[in-house]
Amino acid sequence: MSSAFRKAAKSGQRPHRERAQPAARRRLGLLEKKKDYRLRADDYHKKQNALRALQKKALDKNPDEFYFKMIRSELQDGVHTIKQPKDEVTPEQAKLMKTQDIKYVEMKRVAEAKKIERLKSELHLLDAEGKNPNKHVFFFDTKKEVQEFDIATHLDTLPELVGRVYNRPTIATLQKETLKGATEPAHLKKLAQQRKNQYDLLKQRIEREKAMFVVAQKIQTRKDLLDKTHKVKVKKETTSSPAIYKFKFQRKR
Protein backbone atom coordinates (compact mmCIF):
# COMPACT_ATOMS: atom_id res chain seq x y z
CA MET A 1 0.00 0.00 0.00
CA SER A 2 1.33 3.38 -0.99
CA SER A 3 1.93 6.24 1.42
CA ALA A 4 -1.01 8.23 -0.02
CA PHE A 5 -3.42 5.38 0.69
CA ARG A 6 -1.98 4.96 4.20
CA LYS A 7 -2.51 8.65 4.98
CA ALA A 8 -6.03 8.52 3.57
CA ALA A 9 -6.83 5.40 5.61
CA LYS A 10 -5.55 7.01 8.82
CA SER A 11 -7.53 10.26 8.27
CA GLY A 12 -10.63 8.47 7.08
CA GLN A 13 -10.71 10.42 3.78
CA ARG A 14 -11.23 8.98 0.33
CA PRO A 15 -7.97 8.96 -1.67
CA HIS A 16 -7.82 11.16 -4.81
CA ARG A 17 -7.11 9.40 -8.06
CA GLU A 18 -6.62 10.76 -11.59
CA ARG A 19 -9.73 10.12 -13.60
CA ALA A 20 -9.24 8.72 -17.08
CA GLN A 21 -10.97 10.22 -20.11
CA PRO A 22 -13.71 8.34 -21.94
CA ALA A 23 -12.54 6.23 -24.88
CA ALA A 24 -13.56 8.89 -27.42
CA ARG A 25 -11.48 11.57 -25.60
CA ARG A 26 -8.55 9.46 -24.53
CA ARG A 27 -6.23 11.32 -26.90
CA LEU A 28 -6.74 14.48 -24.77
CA GLY A 29 -5.04 12.95 -21.74
CA LEU A 30 -6.12 12.74 -18.11
CA LEU A 31 -8.63 15.12 -16.57
CA GLU A 32 -7.30 18.13 -14.73
CA LYS A 33 -5.96 17.79 -11.25
CA LYS A 34 -7.45 19.42 -8.21
CA LYS A 35 -4.66 21.98 -8.01
CA ASP A 36 -5.37 23.04 -11.62
CA TYR A 37 -8.98 23.75 -10.68
CA ARG A 38 -7.78 25.90 -7.78
CA LEU A 39 -5.54 27.93 -10.10
CA ARG A 40 -8.42 28.59 -12.47
CA ALA A 41 -10.71 29.50 -9.59
CA ASP A 42 -8.17 31.93 -8.13
CA ASP A 43 -7.68 33.57 -11.54
CA TYR A 44 -11.45 33.91 -12.00
CA HIS A 45 -11.94 35.54 -8.59
CA LYS A 46 -9.00 37.90 -9.26
CA LYS A 47 -10.60 39.12 -12.49
CA GLN A 48 -13.99 39.52 -10.84
CA ASN A 49 -12.44 41.65 -8.10
CA ALA A 50 -10.73 43.84 -10.73
CA LEU A 51 -14.04 44.36 -12.54
CA ARG A 52 -15.78 45.32 -9.28
CA ALA A 53 -13.02 47.85 -8.54
CA LEU A 54 -13.38 49.40 -12.01
CA GLN A 55 -17.16 49.61 -11.64
CA LYS A 56 -16.81 51.32 -8.28
CA LYS A 57 -14.28 53.76 -9.76
CA ALA A 58 -16.67 54.58 -12.61
CA LEU A 59 -19.56 55.18 -10.19
CA ASP A 60 -17.46 57.44 -7.97
CA LYS A 61 -16.14 59.49 -10.93
CA ASN A 62 -17.25 63.10 -11.37
CA PRO A 63 -19.09 63.38 -14.76
CA ASP A 64 -17.88 67.00 -15.14
CA GLU A 65 -14.23 66.06 -14.72
CA PHE A 66 -11.99 66.94 -17.67
CA TYR A 67 -8.57 65.68 -18.66
CA PHE A 68 -6.66 66.23 -21.89
CA LYS A 69 -6.72 62.59 -22.92
CA MET A 70 -10.43 63.02 -23.66
CA ILE A 71 -9.64 65.20 -26.69
CA ARG A 72 -6.35 63.54 -27.64
CA SER A 73 -7.76 60.05 -28.17
CA GLU A 74 -10.14 58.58 -30.71
CA LEU A 75 -11.38 55.29 -32.14
CA GLN A 76 -10.04 54.25 -35.53
CA ASP A 77 -11.56 51.07 -36.97
CA GLY A 78 -12.56 50.02 -33.47
CA VAL A 79 -9.05 50.51 -32.05
CA HIS A 80 -8.40 53.12 -29.35
CA THR A 81 -5.56 55.37 -30.50
CA ILE A 82 -4.01 58.54 -29.11
CA LYS A 83 -3.58 61.49 -31.43
CA GLN A 84 0.00 62.58 -31.87
CA PRO A 85 0.50 66.26 -31.00
CA LYS A 86 1.44 68.55 -33.85
CA ASP A 87 4.87 70.06 -33.96
CA GLU A 88 4.82 73.53 -32.47
CA VAL A 89 6.69 76.24 -34.33
CA THR A 90 7.20 79.89 -33.53
CA PRO A 91 6.03 82.59 -35.96
CA GLU A 92 9.68 83.30 -36.84
CA GLN A 93 10.26 79.64 -37.71
CA ALA A 94 7.07 79.55 -39.80
CA LYS A 95 8.17 82.66 -41.72
CA LEU A 96 11.57 81.10 -42.37
CA MET A 97 9.97 77.91 -43.71
CA LYS A 98 7.66 79.94 -45.95
CA THR A 99 10.68 81.88 -47.23
CA GLN A 100 12.45 78.63 -48.08
CA ASP A 101 9.35 77.42 -49.91
CA ILE A 102 9.15 80.65 -51.91
CA LYS A 103 12.84 80.41 -52.86
CA TYR A 104 12.42 76.83 -54.07
CA VAL A 105 9.30 77.61 -56.13
CA GLU A 106 10.92 80.74 -57.55
CA MET A 107 14.02 78.76 -58.50
CA LYS A 108 11.90 76.20 -60.37
CA ARG A 109 9.90 78.96 -62.06
CA VAL A 110 13.06 80.69 -63.29
CA ALA A 111 14.34 77.37 -64.65
CA GLU A 112 11.07 76.89 -66.54
CA ALA A 113 11.26 80.44 -67.90
CA LYS A 114 14.76 79.78 -69.26
CA LYS A 115 13.59 76.57 -70.95
CA ILE A 116 10.66 78.50 -72.48
CA GLU A 117 12.98 81.14 -73.92
CA ARG A 118 15.24 78.45 -75.34
CA LEU A 119 12.31 76.69 -77.02
CA LYS A 120 11.01 79.96 -78.42
CA SER A 121 14.39 80.77 -79.91
CA GLU A 122 14.46 77.35 -81.60
CA LEU A 123 10.90 77.38 -82.92
CA HIS A 124 10.40 81.09 -83.69
CA LEU A 125 6.66 80.39 -83.36
CA LEU A 126 6.45 79.01 -86.91
CA ASP A 127 3.06 77.60 -87.91
CA ALA A 128 1.98 77.46 -84.27
CA GLU A 129 -1.62 76.37 -83.72
CA GLY A 130 -3.75 79.10 -82.27
CA LYS A 131 -1.37 81.81 -83.45
CA ASN A 132 -2.96 84.69 -85.31
CA PRO A 133 -1.85 84.33 -88.97
CA ASN A 134 0.27 87.13 -90.35
CA LYS A 135 -1.32 89.23 -93.05
CA HIS A 136 0.51 90.53 -96.10
CA VAL A 137 -1.55 93.31 -97.70
CA PHE A 138 -0.99 94.43 -101.32
CA PHE A 139 -2.33 97.76 -102.58
CA PHE A 140 -3.51 98.43 -106.17
CA ASP A 141 -4.90 101.40 -107.95
CA THR A 142 -7.50 99.73 -110.17
CA LYS A 143 -9.79 96.69 -110.04
CA LYS A 144 -8.17 95.35 -113.20
CA GLU A 145 -4.85 95.04 -111.39
CA VAL A 146 -6.57 93.19 -108.58
CA GLN A 147 -8.12 90.69 -111.01
CA GLU A 148 -4.85 90.10 -112.85
CA PHE A 149 -2.79 89.85 -109.67
CA ASP A 150 -0.73 86.64 -109.28
CA ILE A 151 0.89 86.26 -105.88
CA ALA A 152 3.53 83.77 -107.12
CA THR A 153 4.64 86.18 -109.83
CA HIS A 154 4.59 89.10 -107.45
CA LEU A 155 6.73 87.27 -104.85
CA ASP A 156 8.97 85.86 -107.60
CA THR A 157 8.66 82.29 -106.36
CA LEU A 158 7.10 78.98 -107.39
CA PRO A 159 3.36 78.40 -106.83
CA GLU A 160 4.20 75.34 -104.68
CA LEU A 161 6.13 77.54 -102.23
CA VAL A 162 3.54 80.32 -101.87
CA GLY A 163 1.92 78.67 -98.83
CA ARG A 164 5.17 78.76 -96.84
CA VAL A 165 5.53 81.52 -94.30
CA TYR A 166 9.24 80.77 -93.89
CA ASN A 167 12.03 79.39 -96.09
CA ARG A 168 10.36 80.63 -99.28
CA PRO A 169 13.20 81.14 -101.79
CA THR A 170 12.81 83.15 -104.99
CA ILE A 171 13.16 81.76 -108.52
CA ALA A 172 16.56 83.43 -108.89
CA THR A 173 17.78 81.71 -105.76
CA LEU A 174 16.47 78.35 -106.97
CA GLN A 175 18.32 78.76 -110.28
CA LYS A 176 21.59 79.28 -108.44
CA GLU A 177 21.10 76.75 -105.62
CA THR A 178 19.11 73.62 -105.05
CA LEU A 179 16.17 73.65 -102.64
CA LYS A 180 17.47 72.75 -99.19
CA GLY A 181 15.57 70.70 -96.68
CA ALA A 182 12.94 68.02 -96.99
CA THR A 183 10.79 67.92 -100.11
CA GLU A 184 9.13 64.50 -99.90
CA PRO A 185 5.55 64.51 -98.51
CA ALA A 186 6.26 61.75 -95.95
CA HIS A 187 9.33 63.58 -94.63
CA LEU A 188 7.44 66.87 -94.51
CA LYS A 189 4.62 65.21 -92.55
CA LYS A 190 7.10 63.78 -90.05
CA LEU A 191 8.74 67.18 -89.57
CA ALA A 192 5.33 68.81 -89.09
CA GLN A 193 4.48 66.27 -86.36
CA GLN A 194 7.80 66.91 -84.61
CA ARG A 195 7.19 70.66 -84.77
CA LYS A 196 3.69 70.16 -83.32
CA ASN A 197 5.14 68.12 -80.44
CA GLN A 198 7.61 70.91 -79.72
CA TYR A 199 4.80 73.47 -79.61
CA ASP A 200 2.80 71.24 -77.27
CA LEU A 201 5.82 71.01 -74.98
CA LEU A 202 6.24 74.78 -75.13
CA LYS A 203 2.57 75.25 -74.20
CA GLN A 204 2.91 72.90 -71.21
CA ARG A 205 6.00 74.71 -69.95
CA ILE A 206 4.27 78.09 -70.24
CA GLU A 207 1.29 76.80 -68.23
CA ARG A 208 3.63 75.26 -65.62
CA GLU A 209 5.52 78.54 -65.28
CA LYS A 210 2.25 80.43 -64.75
CA ALA A 211 1.12 77.88 -62.14
CA MET A 212 4.40 78.23 -60.23
CA PHE A 213 4.04 82.00 -60.27
CA VAL A 214 0.57 81.68 -58.71
CA VAL A 215 1.89 79.22 -56.10
CA ALA A 216 4.69 81.62 -55.15
CA GLN A 217 2.15 84.43 -54.73
CA LYS A 218 -0.08 82.28 -52.53
CA ILE A 219 2.86 81.25 -50.32
CA GLN A 220 3.88 84.89 -49.98
CA THR A 221 0.31 85.80 -49.01
CA ARG A 222 0.24 83.11 -46.30
CA LYS A 223 3.59 84.35 -45.05
CA ASP A 224 2.24 87.90 -44.79
CA LEU A 225 -0.78 86.63 -42.85
CA LEU A 226 1.53 85.49 -40.03
CA ASP A 227 1.94 89.12 -39.01
CA LYS A 228 -0.44 90.22 -36.28
CA THR A 229 -1.42 93.34 -38.21
CA HIS A 230 -5.12 94.00 -38.67
CA LYS A 231 -6.20 92.93 -42.16
CA VAL A 232 -9.38 92.64 -44.22
CA LYS A 233 -9.91 90.19 -47.05
CA VAL A 234 -10.77 92.03 -50.25
CA LYS A 235 -10.85 89.14 -52.73
CA LYS A 236 -11.12 85.39 -52.24
CA GLU A 237 -8.45 82.99 -53.38
CA THR A 238 -8.99 81.26 -56.74
CA THR A 239 -7.13 78.62 -58.72
CA SER A 240 -5.46 81.29 -60.83
CA SER A 241 -4.84 84.03 -58.27
CA PRO A 242 -4.08 84.38 -54.55
CA ALA A 243 -6.36 86.03 -52.01
CA ILE A 244 -6.06 89.79 -51.69
CA TYR A 245 -5.93 91.40 -48.24
CA LYS A 246 -5.91 95.02 -47.20
CA PHE A 247 -3.54 95.57 -44.28
CA LYS A 248 -3.78 98.40 -41.81
CA PHE A 249 -1.01 100.93 -42.31
CA GLN A 250 1.62 100.58 -39.63
CA ARG A 251 4.62 102.87 -39.45
CA LYS A 252 7.92 101.08 -39.05
CA ARG A 253 10.78 102.49 -37.07
TrEMBL record:
Per the record, the domain of life is Eukaryota
Q: Does the keyword rRNA processing apply?
A: yes
Return the InterPro entries for the record. SSU_processome_Utp11
Q: Name one GO biological process term.
A: rRNA processing
> Where does this protein have compositionally biased stretches of type Basic residues?
7-17
Keyword Aminoacyl-tRNA synthetase on entry: no
One of its Pfam families is Utp11
Task: Indicate where this protein resides in the cell.
Answer: Nucleus, Nucleolus
A GO CC term assigned to this protein in UniProt:
small-subunit processome
Organism for this UniProt entry: Smutsornis africanus
- Name recorded for this polypeptide: Probable U3 small nucleolar RNA-associated protein 11
Could you say which protein family the record assigns here? Answer: Belongs to the UTP11 family.
Going by the UniProt record, its keywords in alphabetical order are: Nucleus, rRNA processing
Upper lineage is:
Eukaryota, Metazoa, Chordata, Craniata, Vertebrata
Disordered, as annotated region: 1-31
